[in-house]
């Protein structure tokens, strides 16, 4: 018998915003009614707040403490397929310092105050009271998960919970160590001159938002999905020079949120530009 739905319902009743996770520990992808944000959802879930869709398909934004939603027929199919429970740390008023290897755990023991600790398959989660900005790869093997993010529920942990220390606040204020430096694509404008239609703020913004969503909702073959998305963006917007560092940075951020490394992002972008002859 699958105990995941029962456990999730109990956690929601205790005030923990929960969501179902797949076997690969990722949230469920968008349902058909949410394609192209028809439901009014948010591109890449960048805007805080509850999801407006009744289905569990908007990542961290769908996490809820409402038992009537967690136990609803719309969520039942997802819970039957779920292999883990996720939760929104920021929504619970906590911050998870995700330590992904023994070296990261050793670093935390040296630089962070003791707090509630939960064992993971490869390291530990150190949970602190208070919410901060979520940032991946602040150090080798260290991610900060709080607002606009999700973590896997692995139990209540051990030890009393401390407040978010100054060291964590400092980490989320600096650029992640593994974050690539976004590059501006500098190529010739389309032959014939004239005003480039891609420079329309609405047209370009929609294209980037759709690309972010395509990456964030990929449920398998993430490497291939990221490459195809980069290829599509460059095909539509790469030859006129309208892409900026901000646009490319948003795409890289979406890819890294799905687990892609900085190196894979750089390689995928380079391969896409080469394939298009840019």
Report on this structure:
By secondary structure, the chain is an alpha+beta fold. It folds into 3 domains: about 5-85, no CATH class; about 90-175, no CATH class; about 195-275, no CATH class. About 35% of the residues lie in helices and about 15% in strands. The protein has 9 helices and 8 strands. The relative contact order is 0.12.
Order of helices and strands: HEHHEEHEEEEEHHHHH
Name the poorly predicted regions. Answer: 43-48, 175-195
Given the structure, what is the number of helices? 9
Biggest beta sheet attributes: 5 strands, antiparallel
- End-to-end separation in angstroms reads 54 Å
Number of E strands: 8
Principal-axes geometry comes out as globular
Strand content: 5-15%
**Helical residues, percent:** 25-40%
Radius of gyration: 20 Å
Average pLDDT level:
81
Structural class: alpha+beta
Task: Please give the order of strands in the largest beta sheet.
Answer: 4-5-3-7-6
Number of domains: 3
Keywords, separated by commas or semicolons:
36% helix; 5-stranded antiparallel β-sheet; single chain; globular; alpha+beta; 3 domains; 278 residues; 9 helices
Per-chain topology:
Elements: H1 4-13, E1 18-21, H2 67-70, H3 73-81, E2 84-87, E3 94-99, H4 102-111, E4 116-119, E5 124-129, E6 135-139, E7 142-145, E8 151-152, H5 166-173, H6 201-216, H7 222-237, H8 245-257, H9 262-276
Antiparallel strand pairs: 1-2, 2-8, 3-5, 3-7, 4-5, 6-7
Helix pairs in contact: 6-7, 6-8, 7-9
